[in-house]
């Protein structure tokens, strides 16, 4: 009975919208129309890291071109002019762990290649997200890792809570006053 149960689990796992092919992550992204990600990889020189089939397997959460169209204009300009920012953005979408959607659990955190957390959430309707970006259905298993499409660009956070509140003190007048009175600006000075 236990063997039948284990075989059923294996079969269910195998039928979970997975595709596997011999292409590399870079080839897949190029072939499947992730133009913005491919262009950024080429511009920053990171394409080689994702083109090598013998490299350490990675998981990339690749934003669609529609996701790039939604980011603010100033960030789009920065992506065209600042290659260290481009590398930081791209590395924020990559982890050295292999993450199958079937194994994603609510509240789990993994580290991206910048050393920042990727936080996963699972909702009652089955939707799974990473740092608030919806993960597309299925796993694409490639020669050097996995690709998941996401509907949002994961941008690095560079501002602290206290800095944001201080900068927008008229919008957060009461909160600003409480933080000053409670002497919490230093405590909230870290990045959020």
List the helices and strands and how they pair.
Blueprint: H1 2-14, E1 18-20, H2 25-31, H3 35-44, H4 47-51, E2 58-63, H5 65-69, H6 73-81, H7 83-91, E3 94-95, E4 109-111, E5 117-122, E6 128-130, E7 133-134, E8 139-142, E9 145-150, H8 161-167, H9 173-181
Question: What tags apply to this protein structure?
Answer:
FAS1_domain; five-stranded mixed β-sheet; 192 residues; FAS1_dom_sf; FAS1 domain-containing protein; four-stranded antiparallel β-sheet
Q: How helical, in percent, are the residues?
A: 25-40%
Mean pLDDT: 84
Main sheet attributes: strand count, strand direction, barrel closure? 5 strands, mixed
So how many helices?
9
Number of E-type strands:
9
Structural class: alpha+beta
Q: Which regions have little confidence, pLDDT < 50, spanning 5+ residues?
A: 1-16
Proportion in β-strands = 15-25%
**Order of secondary-structure elements:** HEHHHEHHHEEEEEEEHH
Q: Which shape, going by the Cα principal axes?
A: globular
Order of strands in the sheet with most strands: 1-8-9-2-3
Using the CA coordinates, give the radius of gyration.
20 Å
Measured between the Cα atoms of the first and last residue, the distance is 50 Å
């Amino acid at each position: 009975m236990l063997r039948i149960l284990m075989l059923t689990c294996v079969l269910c796992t195998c039928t979970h919208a997975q595709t596997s092919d011999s292409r590399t992550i870079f080839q897949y992204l190029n072939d499947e129309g992730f133009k913005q990600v491919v262009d950024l990889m080429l511009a920053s020189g990171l394409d080689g890291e994702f083109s090598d089939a013998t490299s350490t397997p990675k998981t990339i959460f690749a934003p669609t071109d529609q996701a790039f169209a939604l980011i603010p204009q100033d960030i789009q300009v920065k992506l065209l002019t600042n290659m260290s920012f481009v590398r930081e953005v791209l590395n924020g979408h990559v982890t050295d762990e292999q993450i199958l959607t079937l194994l994603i659990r609510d509240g789990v955190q993994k580290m991206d290649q910048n050393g920042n957390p990727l936080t996963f959430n699972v909702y009652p309707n089955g939707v799974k997200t990473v740092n608030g970006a919806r993960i597309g259905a299925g796993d694409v298993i490639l020669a050097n890792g996995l690709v998941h499409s996401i509907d949002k660009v994961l941008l690095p956070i560079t501002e602290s809570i206290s800095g944001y509140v201080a900068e927008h003190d008229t919008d957060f007048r009461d909160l600003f006053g409480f933080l000053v009175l409670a002497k919490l600006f230093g405590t909230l000075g870290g990045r959020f």
